Amino acid sequence: NAGVTQTPKFRVLKTGQSMTLLCAQDMNHEYMYWYRQDPGMGLRLIHYSVGEGTTAKGEVPDGYNVSRLKKQNFLLGLESAAPSQTSVYFCASSYPPSGRPQETQYFGPGTRLLVL
Amino acid sequence: AQKITQTQPGMFVQEKEAVTLDCTYDTSDPSYGLFWYKQPSSGEMIFLIYQGSYDQQNATEGRYSLNFQKARKSANLVISASQLGDSAMYFCAMRGSSGGSNYKLTFGKGTLLTVNP
């Protein structure tokens, strides 16, 4: 059981370049999430998905797009990277929390992105 | 809207002593869950403990316990017998129960704990 994996682990981009971050989970979770972590800010939700083929905006969605074509994968795209998107990106997954209030989210190891 | 406040940017504790990390929250949801996560320097997020708003007893998990005071809206993490490996960033998070908040976790800004030998 690999849990939640993220690819790549680290990436340097130039302003204006695009890239896709891949998240994969093998726990058959319905829900998947993308967060960003900035110094002194905690984790903030970018986008999330409650099932295959569905996505929704979180707290800080601007400049990002996502897709969930397969249940086990959740992709985060940056179409035109900006220095403000320099951050550590975490993917997480969980079962639907309804009826399982103690259900935690399981986090991937993170992707460090530097935009120059 | 939900809010988590962690007022201690950094804390120091001597090895083998107990330490309390503060967390206060604000929500209008009738029921909610509170979580604590540990983030060591390696970066991964590790789930530590959960407390439900209607749980009668404070949650405990090994050396971790949660001092839940609902009237004060506080959910402090207590680590007993601190170890060097406890040095990490600790995040408090909440999940609500209303339609727009029953899936997402709202995080505090974290407390950096340093355990001194």
- Rounded to an integer in angstroms, the radius of gyration calculated over CA atoms of chain A is 14 Å
What is the structural class of chain B? mainly beta
Beta-strand percentage of chain A? over 45%
Please estimate the helix content of chain A.
under 10%
Identify low-pLDDT runs of chain B. Answer: none
Given the helix and strand composition of chain A, which structural class is it? mainly beta
Mean pLDDT of chain A, nearest integer?
Answer: 93
Give the tally of β-strands of chain B: 12
**End-to-end span of chain A in angstroms?**
36 Å
Question: What share of residues are in beta strands of chain B?
Answer: over 45%
- Overall number of strands of chain A: 11
Any idea what the shape of chain B is?
globular
Low-confidence stretches of chain A: none
Helix percent of chain B reads: under 10%
Q: Tell me, rounded to a whole number, the average pLDDT of chain B.
A: 93
Could you tell me how far the N terminus lies from the C terminus of chain B, measured between alpha carbons in angstroms?
41 Å
User: Which protein chains make the most extensive interface, counting residues with beta carbons within 8 Å of the other chain's beta carbons?
Assistant: A-B, 26 and 24 residues
